[in-house]
Amino acid sequence: MAMHGSPLGLFALVLLAFAPISTRAAECGSMASPKLDWQECTKKNLMLQGSDLEGANLFSTDFSLTDLSGANVKSANLEKATLVRASLEGAHAEGANFAKIEAYRSSFANIAAEGASFAGAELQRANFAGAQLSGATFEKAELGRADFDKAVLTGAKFSFANLSRADLSGATFEGPVMFDRAFMFLTRIEGLDLSAAAGLEQAQIDLACGDASTKLPTGLSAPATWPCPADHE
């Protein structure tokens, strides 16, 4: 107790109070490198193509409008990061954590994100064309008008996801994909073989947009409203 009242004790307390701030400032100013800590840093509107951020802590980092195309974010933690209109096109993101990110109109085209988590993410109008998403989870994600053209979705999980007007029609997968409790209002599923899909119910199919070539699980049938009109939005 006596030390706290002394000048030395007060100086020590001041150092302790400001140490986290100084450390955080130093980390935010550091160059991109594996396993760095950019938690809650602002990295908006930057050119970070090809950066190696494997295993980095990017929790709640703001990457709005930033170009991360071709970057390595394998096993990185991007939970709650802001990626609005950002690009991760062609990035390597195997096993990365994108849970609860904000990524409206962002590009994940041709990303390699096998086993990645997008649980609870805001991904309206996101572009996943050509993405490798085997084993990825989109549970409770907002995927309104997201584009999965030519994406590989083998073993992907869309449980409780909002797939309203999302386009899955050009996606490919082998084996089951999870759709239990997913909201599928005008979800494009034309030409898909969903015979092994898990969790699908007739009410979801009645809302979705398929065609004569859509294959459904046993017990489900195509509604009279198919095919849907083209979506020009």
UniProtKB/TrEMBL annotation:
| Listed Pfam families | Pentapeptide
Query: In its keyword annotation, does this UniProt entry include Signal?
Result: yes
- Tell me yes or no: is Signal among this UniProt entry's keywords: yes
Q: Which Gene3D superfamilies match?
A: E3 ubiquitin-protein ligase SopA
SUPFAM superfamilies given for it?
Pentapeptide repeat-like
Transmembrane regions: none
The residues the entry assigns to the signal sequence are 1-25
Q: Which keywords does UniProt give here?
A: Signal
Q: Under what name is this protein listed? A: Pentapeptide repeat-containing protein
Give the species this sequence originates from: Rhizobium pisi
Phylogenetic placement of the source organism: Bacteria, Pseudomonadati, Pseudomonadota, Alphaproteobacteria, Hyphomicrobiales
